[in-house]
Specification:
Strand content of chain B: 5-15%
Shape of chain B: globular
Number of domains of chain B: 2
CATH superfamily of the largest domain in chain B: Response regulator
Largest sheet of chain A: 5 strands, mixed
Helix content of chain A: 55-70%
Oligomer: heterodimer
Structural class of chain A: alpha+beta
Number of helices of chain A: 6
Order of helices and strands of chain A: EEHHHHEHEEHEE
CATH topology of the largest domain in chain A: Heat Shock Protein 90
Number of strands of chain A: 7
Distance between the termini of chain A: 14 Å
CATH class of the largest domain in chain A: Alpha Beta
Strand order of the largest sheet of chain A: 3-4-5-7-6
């Protein structure tokens, strides 16, 4: 559950504004200190009623301690409701973002990618016609034209490959058929021999599927790039309300959750849906990374 | 050849019709979704169908479902599946369905391959004639997925090359040409592959399909 900052206490004796340390109004502590000093001075000069200042200091100190706690207690139901509201709006935002990414991928597929395929077709035909003509007439300028058209055709084909990788990085189309389907493709494209075990009786929400997919993608890339692993195992299972994912490899180990590192970034992203990432990677291996995600945001 | 095209993108559809016409083939129908594709194949009984994977209404794997259904209902029609993405699972489903028929007549290519018009039309002709045409990308992905299987581990790198070209639907002659070795050497490799995969000597074509499927399924 998210931590909620207590609302500032109401100033009763003295209030110097709303500075808070650990949820306690600084003004109260300052006031209490002033009362203690004033009381001590009065007593020192033999004014017995200086005791009243000590009482005031005690009262202020107690209030400084109690008011924020009382406020927390008083606001608890409101805060619980607020957390629920935030969770709801987060779910809406995340699902909306997932849907938006899916739409961008579809637009690329139907737009730029399709147009490029059409361009490649025309260039392919043009090259064939030109080279037939070049062979018949034997003109050097025809040969040059064939070369140019062929270079354009190859560049266009490369652009299609790049667009495909880009689109897959935005939203892997196979995710539409489920996390298992998308992970199978990911495992096949990985540089490692990946054993895949997926046991999900029902589909998590789209944002969770997307997060699990990119989590797996990054962990497999890490295993291939940094650990020197040959084989990896990718297991996706479920517990009530949770999707669990385990990526293990036979590499050299030594992976750590360092601030600013890739794994820490991954852990941060997992946290945005109240998930958890755990890394076990002793020197010499093996590395086992476990991610727990809620099935629904 | 008489061909039916199913592709929801109008520009690609028009481009395919143009390419096929240029090579002297007749497009008997060009449609935009899986349902219209089934109807067109029922009506025209074409030699081959070129089928996009993502089509209305769901834009997921409508083309794969239609391709499998066409192979089941129209043995005379080869199906070339044509997609922006290669998905290993789709390849396995298509080839699983093909092996059920004891033959292929199935192709699975990335859309960019049309850039090489000659090879694309060759692939389509192979599929129409009951052969297979698999994108090198399919082979790479399936190879990636197969590295853990012991049977295939026993193959030498050269035998792997030969098997992957067999999976693309190439004949021994074509494999010899690609690898720049003699056809006799290819035959030897193929015999070794059959032996290592434990395929009994029976009908050579049948064993060839089985070897490819073993390679693809594992």
């Amino acid at each position: 559950m998210a931590r909620v900052a207590p609302s500032p206490g109401r100033g009763i004796f003295l209030a110097f504004g709303a500075r808070h340390v650990k949820g306690v109004a600084v003004s109260r502590w300052v006031a209490a200190a002033c009362f203690v000093i004033a009381g001590a001075l009065l007593l020192a000069f033999g004014q017995w009623w200086g005791v009243v200042f000590f009482l005031a200091a005690g009262l202020n100190g107690s209030l400084a301690y109690l008011v924020p706690r009382w406020n927390l207690f008083r606001d608890a139901p409101k805060n619980v409701e607020r957390v629920r509201e935030l969770q709801r709006s987060r779910a809406v935002v995340m699902d909306d973002a997932a849907a938006r990414l899916r739409r961008i991928e579809q637009d690329l597929h139907d737009g730029a990618q399709a147009q490029m395929v059409a361009v490649v077709m025309k260039l392919g035909l043009a090259r064939d016609h030109l080279s037939t003509t070049a062979a018949r007439t034997g003109g050097a300028s025809y040969d040059r034209a064939v070369e140019l058209v062929d270079a354009a055709r190859r560049a266009a084909m490369e652009a299609i490959t790049e667009l495909r990788d880009l689109a897959r990085g935005i939203h892997p189309p196979a995710l539409d058929e489920g996390l298992g389907a998308a992970l199978a493709g990911l495992a096949a494209r990985s540089g490692l021999a990946v054993e895949l075990v997926v046991d999900l009786p029902e589909r998590p929400s789209p944002a969770i599927e997307t997060m699990a997919y990119f989590c797996a993608a990054e962990l497999l890339t890490n295993a291939a790039k940094h650990s020197g692993a040959q084989r990896a195992k990718l297991e996706v299972g479920h517990q009530p309300g949770l999707v669990t994912m385990r990526v293990s490899d036979d590499g050299a180990g030594g992976a750590r959750l360092e601030p600013g590192g890739g794994l820490a970034g991954l852990a941060e992203r997992v946290k945005t849906v109240d998930g958890r990432l755990q890394v076990e990677s002793p020197a010499g291996g093996p590395t086992v990374v476990t991610a727990e995600l809620p099935s629904h945001v | 050849m008489r061909i039916v095209i199913a592709e929801d993108s109008a520009v690609i559809r028009a481009g395919l019709v143009e390419i096929l016409a240029d090579r002297g083939h007749q497009t008997v129908a060009a449609v935009g979704d899986a349902e219209a594709l089934r109807a067109a194949v029922d009506e025209h009984e074409p030699d081959a169908a070129v089928v996009d994977v993502r089509m209305p209404p769901g834009y997921t794997d409508e083309g794969i479902r239609a391709a499998i259904a066409i192979r089941r209902d129209h043995p005379g029609t080869g199906v070339l599946v044509f997609s922006q993405y290669i998905e290993t699972r789709h390849a396995a489903e298509l080839l699983g369905a093909a092996s059920g028929r004891g033959a292929a007549g199935i192709g699975y290519l990335l859309k960019d391959r049309v850039g090489d018009v000659g090879e694309f039309v060759d692939a389509l002709s192979r599929v129409a004639a009951g052969g297979t045409a698999l994108d090198p990308e399919v082979i790479t992905q399936l190879l990636g997925a197969t590295r853990r299987t012991d049977d295939l581990d026993a193959l030498t790198p050269r035998e792997h090359d030969v098997l992957s070209l067999m999976a693309e639907g190439r004949s021994n002659g074509a494999i010899a040409g690609t690898l720049v070795i003699s056809e006799r050497a290819v035959e030897k490799h193929v015999a070794n592959i059959f032996a290592k995969l434990g395929l009994a000597p029976s009908d050579a074509d049948h064993r060839r399909v089985l070897a490819v499927l073993r390679y693809l399924e594992s």
